[in-house]
Amino acid sequence: MSSWCDGEFLGFDTETTGVDVASDRIVSAALVHRAGPSTRVRTWLIDPGVPIPTAASEVNGLTTRQVRAEGVRSAMALEEIATAIAAAQHAGVPLVAYNATFDLALLDHELDRHRLPRLTQRVGGPLAVIDPLVLDRGLDTEREGPRTLGDLCGHYGVQTRADLHAADVDVLATLEVLTGIAAAFPGIGELTVAELQPWQARQYRRWAEGCNARRLADEHARPPVDPSWPLPVALAAAG
Prior knowledge:
The protein is about 45% helix and about 15% strand. With about 240 residues, the chain is α/β, with parallel strands linked by helices. The protein has one domain (about 5-190): Ribonuclease H-like superfamily/Ribonuclease H (Nucleotidyltransferase, domain 5), CATH 3.30.420.10. A six-stranded mixed beta sheet has the order 4-3-2-1-5-6, with helices on both faces. About 35% of the residues are buried.
């Protein structure tokens, strides 16, 4: 029986002006279609229409001057990205994204900002998503320490050809991490992509509830994490 591990994937990542999904903007994005040995990479450099904070530039290497001179208009890029993702979903190709809730929520807010249809509206229902971060947390529950993309690359022996925090580099690394997870935990390949969706949602909720319990005990902690996956409940309901 064939496994989803052997199928096609569409990897997705963004670089942004910050980490607030409701107010920050996408400044670069990448979609990587992988089918067996074939890999096709498409990238966007985007002028978000607002200045890029220095702290964000230090992470992603992009400046306000650069995106204004070389970037495409936000609405154009967002439409192209959303159209490509929806086409892949209709073709049965799952979307692979590390920490998918961030990128998908940010993309939906950006689409709303430009009065463009959300992904779920384009697809006509829930998205088929595979999130290596959620898989890793759910399958390797005893491992301690951080689980950034760089950490997972080190853990699963993924060699990157450039520094992380460029959207295309991050997507390629994410796809390799997914391959490493599938090899380390072959049982996960016995689930179908459809079965993976509620499994990942349960793992994410378990992690979020634990995270929120720890934050509740810390009076200086950040706001609670929405336990819904792959989209916050408000966005999923409105879609």
